[in-house]
Write a structure and sequence with these properties.
The chain is of the alpha/beta class. The chain is 41% helix and 15% strand. Strands 3-2-4-1-5 form a five-stranded parallel sheet, with helices on both faces. It has a five-stranded mixed sheet with strand order 6-7-10-8-9.
Length: 334
């Protein structure tokens, strides 16, 4: 059973009910300030070449901005951002007053032509999201696509990314991974997406809302079977937590909290390990005789649902497939 993670060394506990800012406002230390001042004098004096700059910004801790990102943000002609006030807070922290324009999913159709016109006229424009890397579950795809169609240069300025931060801290395989973005809100759509991804032999990465986390994990355990998973919450922020365990145990953990009226807060990334080798072979394939034998033994001592669950935990096979097969076996026996 997963345990509540201990507070990380160096983090602060805050009084319940107090809100922590999205971007931590601890001051820039003296050595960093000196480096920034020197960099400002040496390199931040010229406008970058024309093009659209895809710039990553902090996902929580404001100090995670890169020197190159600051260079670009200071010297481009315009910064297109989801929320001008949110990005303005980050820019003002580093003394940057570049003009900003709102560009998001609600005004994209109206604003995009003007941005493209400026780019075609030789402007250098930065595209940023509220947090992390633009276009990763954030608006911007259509702008980049149309800019490419118009022959405009696209320049990535890499940096923070919540999905990658969760993956590398998960302890799950990193050689192959699949980013699935936000999980659908309806239970039927959630089940469908998990079924579509079940056979991918890679770690799966999802973004999820705190209020749906418990139900999502329950569906995930039901569809994906026995797999290791990690819940990464509020990465790089004061209340960062990383919880590891089997999907079913994590589901039980958060369901108990939900029943007690305790819901997690903040932004959540779910990383799920690849299917066990035995799970790549479905019920009805070459291992069916062994599976049937296990189900028949289990059915002698328990009900159909419990038998399917027991064999699923033992083999890593899909619980629903095993339940259907158990019903077939009972029908044949009758």
């Amino acid at each position: 059973m997963p345990e509540r993670p201990a507070r990380r060394h160096g983090t602060k506990s805050i009084t319940a009910g107090k809100k922590s800012s999205t971007l931590q406002s601890r001051p820039v230390d003296k050595s960093t300030r000196n480096l920034l001042d020197q960099t400002n004098q040496d390199t931040l004096t010229s406008k970058p070449p024309a093009g659209l700059y895809i710039i990553s910004t902090p996902i929580g801790h404001a100090d995670d901005i890169t020197l190159r990102a600051l260079d670009m943000l200071r010297n481009v002609d315009l910064v297109a951002c989801e929320d001008t006030r949110h990005t303005g807070n980050l820019l003002s922290r580093y003394g940057i007053n570049t003009r900003r324009i709102a560009y998001h999913e609600h005004n994209g159709e109206r604003v995009r032509p003007g941005i493209l016109r400026k780019l075609k006229n030789g402007a250098a424009i930065a595209l940023v999201s509220d947090a992390g890397t633009p276009l990763v579950s954030d608006p911007g795809f259509k702008l980049v696509s149309e800019a490419i169609t118009n022959g405009i240069s696209i320049i990535p300025v890499p940096g923070p990314s919540a999905p990658l931060a969760a993956l590398v801290s998960s302890g799950l395989p990193t050689d192959r991974f699949f980013f699935a973005g936000f999980i659908p809100s309806s239970s039927a759509a959630r089940k469908k997406i998990f079924q579509e991804l079940a056979d991918i032999k890679a770690s799966l990465i999802f973004l999820e809302s705190p209020r749906r986390l418990a139900n999502t994990l329950e569906t995930m355990a039901d569809v994906l079977g026995s797999r290791e998973a990690v819940i990464a919450r509020e990465l790089t922020k004061i209340h960062e937590t990383i919880l590891r365990g089997p999907v079913a145990e994590l589901a039980s953990y958060y369901l108990r909290d939900a029943e007690a009226g305790v819901l997690p807060r903040g932004e959540i990334v779910i990383v799920v390990g690849p299917p066990p080798k035995s799970q790549s072979m479905h019920v009805g394939e070459s291992n069916s005789k062994e599976t049937d034998k296990l189900l028949q033994t289990a059915l002698q001592n328990m009900g159909t649902k419990d038998a399917a669950k027991s064999v699923a935990e033992l083999t890593g096979l899909n619980r629903r497939d095993l339940y259907s097969r158990a019903l077939q076996l009972l029908g044949d026996a009758g």
